[in-house]
Amino acid sequence: MSKKIKTEAAKRLFQAILTLETQEECFTFFEDLCTVNELESLAQRFEVASMLREKHTYLEVAEKTGASTATISRVNRSLNYGSDGYDLVFKRMKK
């Protein structure tokens, strides 16, 4: 993980997120924490990552998610060269 993100504020935020126990609690917390646009952007990136991992083309991903090619490219870069955070979550979601 990048040292840029490892701030005390980020650590406290992640500690707070780890206290959430249900999807409804997540909706409640993130609705307070994020704007609608921020939450939609996060959800869109996650959907893009999921589709790219399933080997969908950029065109298919763009059509289904409405994401720009720049966003798709950034997510793809994270999937290929990032910290493997997406892979960690996808593996856990399969269980």
From TrEMBL:
Protein name as annotated: His repressor
Organism name: Anaerostipes rhamnosivorans
One GO molecular-function entry: DNA-binding transcription factor activity
Cross-referenced Gene3D superfamilies: TrpR-like
Record-annotated membrane-spanning stretches: none
SUPFAM superfamilies: TrpR-like
Protein origin, superkingdom: Bacteria
